[in-house]
Structures are given as C-alpha cells and as structure tokens.
C-alpha cells in the first residue's frame, strides 16, 4: 500500500496560457508586451505577457492603468472559445496517458504518479509527457514534481517559464525555506502584509513560528499556513470525473405549456446553479437542457461552450438549447439544466467578459445571495405575478414579490 510519504505528484501549468495561444495565432506578438482584455476605459487586464509584467502590470488591473504603465503595449480582446478548445486538447492528451489526474483550472493539472517509479521513473515519464503536450499543442508548459500537491505547484512556479523541476523526498522544507511568503499558494496581499508586519518574510521564518501562535494570529488559516511552510500537504489528487457536473430539475405539479412560466423557470434554475458554480469557484464547459413531456418522452440537448460561470452567458446558452429541445407541442412535465465539464478558476475567466462595473455587480449580487439566500435576488424575468401561473412552482421556490 502506498503511503502519503511515498506519493509522487506532478503539477503541470501552461505558461501564460492565454498569451501563448494568442502568440500561436500571430507570431508577431512573441516577445512583445501583450495585454489580454477589453479596450474600453472600464475594461480590466485578463492576462499579460512576461514582457508586460516587467512594467508592473498584472491581471485584474484596470486596462487604463496598464496602458499608462506601458503605453506601447499591444491589446488583444482575447478568444475564450479558442482558449477553451486548446485547454481541452491538452486535457485529452493527459487523460490518455496519466493514471490519475485532476484538472484544477483551465490551464493547470495535477497528476498522481505514485508507484510509477518501479516501472518507468516518474521524472523521465513526466518529462516525456511534457514534450508530447508541447509537440501536439504547440504551447509551452512547465511542471514540478514532488511528494505532494503544494510543493509540486511551487516547484512549477520556480521552473517557469517553460521548464521543469523535481523536489526529492525529504528536501521539501529546504526547497521552500528561502522563498518569499507570497510564493505559498493562497497567501495573498493581505495575509502577506500581516505576516511581514510581524517580521515574517520568508517561508523558513514562517515554518519556525509556533503553530499555536500562528493560530492565535490567523485562526484556522494559521494552522494551514504552518503546514504549508513545513511542506506538509495531504490533499489528494481528485479524479477529474468526480467533479463533472452540477444540475437541477423541476417536475411540475401540473403539466404545462405556459411558455412565460417555462422561460422564467429556466432563468431561475440557471441562476441557481450558476451561483453554486461561483460559490465553488468553478466554471462549466458544457451546458445541457432536459425536457420531459406529458407522455414521458424525455429529450436532452447539450453544447460545449467556452468556460464560464456568468449568468448572462449561461442563460443565453440555456435558452438556445431549450428552443432546440422543445420540438413537440405537448404539455411539459419536467425541465432540467445541467452544467458539466467543470474546472476551477472563475475569477480570471470572468475578466474576459466583464468591465470593472460588471465584476463589481456580480460580487455585489453574490454577496447578497450569500447573506439572504440565492432566491432573494433574481432577474426580473423570473418574478412571476401572483396569479394562476404560480401553481406550477413549488411553494418553497416562489420568490417574494420584491416586497422587502
């Protein structure tokens, strides 16, 4: 039996993924300060090249600010459909070769290679997989190889751009020790600022702070930080198929052909599970709509889409699928919506579609839904008047008619 100490975990990360895809489409962009995002005054940077980063530009920065820092930067609006296609290409390559893998975002993967050393040699096998990905996709990719997910991810970051790095068993702490605390995943600006005010600047110093003191400073997050600083991470590689879908459906008390009601119900259901996606920090790459008629015939229609978790994008796809699926003029007994092919990473993807106002709007909407419940804030098209149409909707799901 393989113990946690004997694990071998590889972390793959497509380097500057969106930028790399753009450069693949137009070789003239290589080596240029390139910004991906909208061009309006209120747009934000979704991604930027290494050349642009030298000017202090980073993702989520207002595009206007980025262009002040680097006036000669090239701006591309981005092509999320193409990025999603390339992500799926790489996923297919990994799925065809890896014994166990987790797609943790549109451009990141964890592979559990535990036990493979007995047969192939994990480093050699992983290096060959990297070459296969680069040859097939034409994109640069880096990997880190270590005994757990945390150290392998940090190793990947240190191997970039377009490199590879192995951290041997027993060398985790010494590898992490000289690094700045910001190198630890999930240590953001606020956490780093709190630690630096207390004189903690490197991972080594953080690892030497008593765990009880870190807990006093930061609660449960302090315990997690101490473990990370000491190279401890027992989280498993989650098989990709285990996080494939999220769905909802409604069987009506009375069969109906009321299109106003059916469309309102589609809006309600889509908003409900889109909110769940954002709560789980996930994106969907496939949308399915299900209809069951009064004679119990069931029809489903689905389509692959550019990864998204935005209501306005998903609603458009759901309505399009419903229109295709509803091809019989019979009463409807049930409708359902499912999002599948899920990956992590909602925030960065939303930058492609959204201005600063749109991002702020979604954050405000989700804040209200978190506080009062998702059903207390919906699109106006989903608020049915208090008449006979309400008989179709379960009492627990009827939205208050904006009286609050």
Describe the structure.
This protein has 404 residues and is α+β, with helices and mostly antiparallel strands. The chain has 3 domains: 1-165, Reverse transcriptase/Diguanylate cyclase domain (Alpha-Beta Plaits), CATH 3.30.70.270; 170-240, DNA polymerase, domain 1 (Orthogonal Bundle); 244-397, DNA polymerase, Y-family, little finger domain (Dna Ligase, domain 1). The protein is 41% helix and 20% strand. The chain contains 15 helices and 13 strands. Helix 4 packs antiparallel against helix 5 (122-137) and helix 10 (211-218) packs across helix 11 (220-229). The longest helix has 21 residues, at 259-279. The N and C termini lie far apart (58 Å). It is found in: Cytoplasm.
Question: What topology does this entry show?
Answer:
Layout: E1 9-14, H1 17-25, E2 34-37, E3 45-48, H2 50-53, H3 63-69, E4 74-76, H4 80-97, E5 101-105, E6 108-112, H5 122-137, E7 141-146, H6 149-159, E8 164-166, H7 172-176, H8 189-197, H9 203-208, H10 211-218, H11 220-229, E9 245-256, H12 259-279, E10 282-293, E11 298-308, H13 311-325, E12 332-340, E13 343-344, H14 346-353, H15 356-372
Parallel strand pairs: 2-4, 7-8
Antiparallel strand pairs: 1-6, 1-7, 2-3, 5-6, 9-12, 10-11, 10-12, 10-13
Subcellular location: Cytoplasm
Cofactor: Mg(2+)
GO molecular function: DNA-directed DNA polymerase activity
